[in-house]
Amino acid sequence: MVAVIALMATSCMTLLAAALATVEEDGVIVFVDRTRYTVDVRVDEQHYEVETVRERELDRRRNLKRAADNMIYVSPGYHQVHVRDHGRTVFNESVRVRSDETKIIYL
What angle do CA 11, 17, 20 make, to 5 degrees? Predict the structure, then answer.
């Protein structure tokens, strides 16, 4: 009886460890330009309206915490990213985002 319980506990722990190992963290997409302005973004048919991060701020601090409101969180993998500014397409490419990566797109 004790051996059966120990075997079941070991099996459950193994399954739990395997499930935790496959959990992926989202990546982040940030848009950078010389000035701050609002752009319309479509990532895999999901629509967003975000502000660009000023290039000067990025270079000075390399700290994106101030840009948290302007980040788009996506699952790891390839995504079709389409950025428009006042109806004009400024970026339209397939982008690969890795787990826990901050992908910086310069406009």
Answer: 140
